[in-house]
# Entry
Amino acid sequence: MASSSVRDNPVYHVPDTVQGKYFNKIAANLRSHHKGQTLDQVLTWVTTLHGYLSSPTGGGVRHGADLKAGVALRPNEARLFCNLIRSYITYLLTEHERLSAS
# Structure
């Protein structure tokens, strides 16, 4: 178990464990442990997609959507985002299983 001073940090790495509260910090921590590997690149793409979808000037899907005016996605955009997210989640879950087993 990590000490309380380590646990107070937003992201900490205990051997074979990455824990934290904020997505971007967790992704950056994971990337630092997998430089030059596919996981590093996938986390870059996921972070970029997360940033775009969260931005009121981007997709506006998560934060900052104007609920009165609405943010309408065209069906092809919605399918693209769903398919990308599904692919990333599938890959990340498989990587989690692989890394947990080693």
Q: What stands out?
A: The mean pLDDT is 76.
